[in-house]
Write a structure and sequence with these properties.
By secondary structure, the protein is mainly alpha-helical. It has five helices and no strands.
């Protein structure tokens, strides 16, 4: 966890440095314009927000690491597989519903990008997929 925190802080500093270089470069590329018009604001703001997001993730990981008061078995190099938590959740490796759910998301995004008539179809497929995924244990071979 400490290594992850360090990597995210490093990424934050990197994106901040790239934002400064990008801004200075865009100002130097247009010497005939004043500062406000010479700066390419979309790229500068995007890089600044990327740096802030990386700093936010680093801060969160640092707080979680401090709150857990010790290293997790996943972070210790000499740990065995048995040292970790055996319960990771319930997964359905035979389920096709996540693929249908991803298809509905792609239909929705495609509907926003190409034609708005496709977006309601994506919403309809999403409703069917989420209901099927939630209730897949209530029918068929795996019914309870």
């Amino acid at each position: 966890m400490r290594t992850n925190t360090g990597l995210w802080w490093l990424l934050s500093v990197f994106f901040l440095a790239v934002a400064v270089v990008y801004t200075i470069w865009s100002v130097l590329a247009h010497p005939d314009l004043d500062f406000v018009r010479a700066v390419e604001w979309v790229g500068t703001v995007a890089l600044l927000f990327t740096a802030f997001m990386a700093a936010l993730i680093a801060f969160y990981l640092g707080k979680v690491h401090k709150a857990q008061q010790g290293e997790l078995p996943e972070d210790v190099l000499t740990a065995d597989i048995d040292d970790g938590d055996p319960e990771l959740g319930e997964f359905s490796p035979w389920s096709w519903w996540p693929i249908v759910l991803a298809f509905s998301a792609s239909l929705g995004i495609l509907g926003l990008a190409v034609g708005t008539w496709l977006f309601p179809i994506g919403i309809g497929v999403f409703v069917v997929a989420i209901v099927g995924w939630v209730y897949e244990y209530y029918r068929g071979y795996f019914a309870r």
